[in-house]
Amino acid sequence: MNDVDAGDMLDPDAGIDVSTPSSQPGTIWNDVVGQSHAIGQLRAALDRGAAHAYLFVGPAGCTKFEAARAFAGRIISGSEDRDQRDARLALEGVHPDITEVQRSGASISFDQAREIVRVAAMAPSESSRKVLILDEFHLLNPTGAGLMLKTIEEPPDSTTFIILCEFVPHDLITISSRCTRVDFRAISADVIAARLLTEGIGPVEAQAASKASLGDLDRARLLATDPTLAERRKLFLSIAGQLDGSGTVAMRLAGELLAAIDASADAIKARHENEIAELDARIKEFGERGSGKKQLEDRHKREVRRARTDELRAGLTTMAQTYRDSLTQGTARNIDAAAGAVHAIHDALESLERNPNEKLLLENLLWSLPSAV
Questions:
Q1: pLDDT value of residue 25
Q2: Residue 289: its pLDDT value, please?
Q3: What segment(s) does the record annotate as region Disordered (predicted)?
Q4: In contact, 310 and 214? CB cutoff 8 Å
Q5: What pTM was computed for the model?
């Protein structure tokens, strides 16, 4: 995680990539962090001529969405100057010929897929090309995938798709085979810490947030302003030493962990309140029609849900490390039990993808784990 390519190192003073031209001041790639290989691949793709569809695959917080906006801006403007009018509007997400599609529910619905097909068929309004950025495409409804296959395979000559997903599920294999794939990696802790320094975060906070972020820059930014991060990490580290095999203790500790996770939402809620206040000011001035209020509310719900899941994932990873340390340091009282604990925690981590009941998940897991002391 901490191995850093020279091309990804950020100058803490300048806040830019000091070894490659991909992130020099004023370029569209400034917000794409730790992804010099992907940027090089995208530049090479444009040198060959824009394809009809691109698939960006990588974990949350790897700045692939920022890369999609930058790439769309490059397609529309033909420039890497972020101050050029079309590029600037693309980076701000408001260019009239770039449509960004976010799911409105648990998945991209059939109705949303049908709207994507309709929009894709329309001519650009002011440019020679139009770009559709489809976010979280791994959550596309299977019926929607069938509807969109033909459009993505053979869109109008003026339309380019940029499809973003964290992984390629079975239902999307056919669609993915029609796209030029670009892989994005989780950002190393060192690169995240360096980036946070350029954004005004102190060294201690940047280091702590980068280690707890699991390669997610968005999460790192949130954690860097969270004064309770150290206390939550300490709580998760202490859990294995408090377990005694009883349901009473397991239930009590599960409650403490969930309370800590609830408190961790304060930072993101504060950011949401600022965004709502800014939107309300715009609505007061220009009216609510086309304001995106419903989309903002939906995004806030998704972000709170993701933040909770990320907190739980990070905490469980910390707990697993406690048992791993007991194995590698030879302090485990029962090697098989400690190894079994690591496997049980990994199973719980995988189950988070299925949106389980957090309370029951934690109670059952903690009840099954041995004490690490």
A1: 57
A2: 67
A3: 1-24
A4: yes
A5: 0.73
